[in-house]
Amino acid sequence: MKNILKKFKNMKYRHKLTILLVVVSLVPVTVISLYGHMRMSRLVRENEMEEMNSILKQTKEGIDSQVQIYTSLMNYLTYSPDIEEIIAEKNMDSYLAYERYTEVVDPLLTVPKSYHDAILQIQLFAKSIKVRHGYTLIPMKEIEEEWWEQKLKDEVSVQWLVNREKKEIAAVRKIYKRQDVEAALCITLDYDKVFRPFENILMAEDTGGVIVDEADGDVCFIDNQEEGKSEEEILKEIQENYAYVNVKSSETGWNYYLYKSHEAISAAVFHVLLSEIPLILLCVAGTVLLGVYFSRLFTRKIEELTENMNQVNNGSREVTVFSDSEDEVGLLVRSFRNMMEEINRLIHEVYENKIALKEFELKALTAQINPHFLYNTLSIINWMAIKAGQRQISKVTLALSTFYRTALSKGADMVTVENCIQNIKAYLEIQLVMHDNNFLVEWQVEPEIKNEIVPKLALQPVVENALEHGLDVKEGEDKCLKLYFVEDGEDILMAVEDNGHGMEQEEAESLVTYQTSGYGLKNVNDRICLLYGEEYKIRIYSKTGQGTRVEIRIPKGGAVHGKEKK
């Protein structure tokens, strides 16, 4: 905690002000954002439940509409005179009964299948029927063989029964005569076709499902069932652990449940949060930007004054800060300016004349040392060497004279390729004498580029490094230095290649970033990048045991980065 307070204490005033403004602004933004998100989350949850309830009601109504059709059909058949006649006539002649069954009852019970694809069959069970007639007319005593017989209640209304194993739904109606059951009419429906409306729900609600149970609690439809759990346990688990809605059908007495996991509801809330995040981030970004802007606005003059004071502390006597405001900062700036004006006046009076005198004396001394004095001296040494018969000394003297003449180049920063070549040749002549001619020099120069303009002394540090770090550390007599001055598309390629020990490519690439005390590769690379852009930086290729190649490219025509070289 103490370290944090210390860091905050030592922080710039502008940064402190920025933090203060941002924190003060973010507190109400955060409170409003949290409150809005909580309200929005509650609305989203309520909307999800309402949407589930609406979907379930629509689906239930679709199934109920089918049920009403089949109930109407059941009523029509129950009160049909032909059906009533069959039920009432118990002593009908066998031939006459067959004729009546075939011509009247069979069409009455089979034709509805043509109009309703969900109907599997329509059966009439009656005491008056002595012998089964196909699948439509069945003696009453055989009703016990039907799966739904045990579930029937003593009711006159239509009873809807479901068998999930057989995938059948039975709509059964008992027909009474006084207190006795004389007959029973049954319409058997296709389970999958009746519950088909649930398929769309199950496709959309991939994180939930649907359950339908009968009035007595038996589950008549469930989209999936976990192993090891009964239908009742699953229903109880859904009621306890899921978000669900349920409606009851007045036609069948079935209860419909549509459920969805709490994670799915939370996912909808999370999507709302994701939609809010850009706005929140925009508010935060705006708060930070405004905090930075106003802190800079308030502290700009203080920082300028501080920077100006640092410059004065480092020896500068110029006052660069100015303020015409009447606040405390403006008063401080004007006081500093008046103080520096007074100090400058005193310095001028006491020291400036003596300092100017010393500067003039130094310039006069420097002017006496010029290139002509150096060239004349080297010329005398060369003449004396020739007179004494010292050809080697004469050769080195002439090379040294050429080297400095091309290096100084009358103070110009840019020279021709020919001047650059002369400078390198003079340097190598001296080095060959110093190395007792223990290495070879190979040149590849295209005459067409000799008049092109290149930076002065761009290649001399490269050649020096090739000798010192390449050939000097190599053992044997096959030392060779190759120099290239050729065209390469729209560029001039100057390359230095040695067959020294070489190095790893990673180490070679780091040479242009290594700062030395002299005029090294980094200085050359920085200068070329400033003149021509980063795409013309020095390229170094090297392999251990094979040597190193350094390439410098210069655009033809003397084109300098951003302008033409004049």
Helix content: 40-55%
Beta-strand percent range = 15-25%
Class from secondary-structure proportions: alpha+beta
**Count of discrete alpha- or pi-helical segments spanning 4 or more residues:** 16
Task: Give the overall average pLDDT.
Answer: 80
Strand order of the largest sheet: 2-1-5-4-3
The 3D shape can be described as elongated
The largest sheet, given as strand count, sense and whether it forms a barrel, is: 5 strands, mixed
Write down how many β-strands occur, each being a DSSP E stretch of 2 or more residues.
18
Straight-line N-to-C gap = 61 Å
**Low-pLDDT windows of residues:** 358-369, 561-566
Radius of gyration using CA atoms only? 52 Å
Please give the oligomerization state of what you see.
single chain
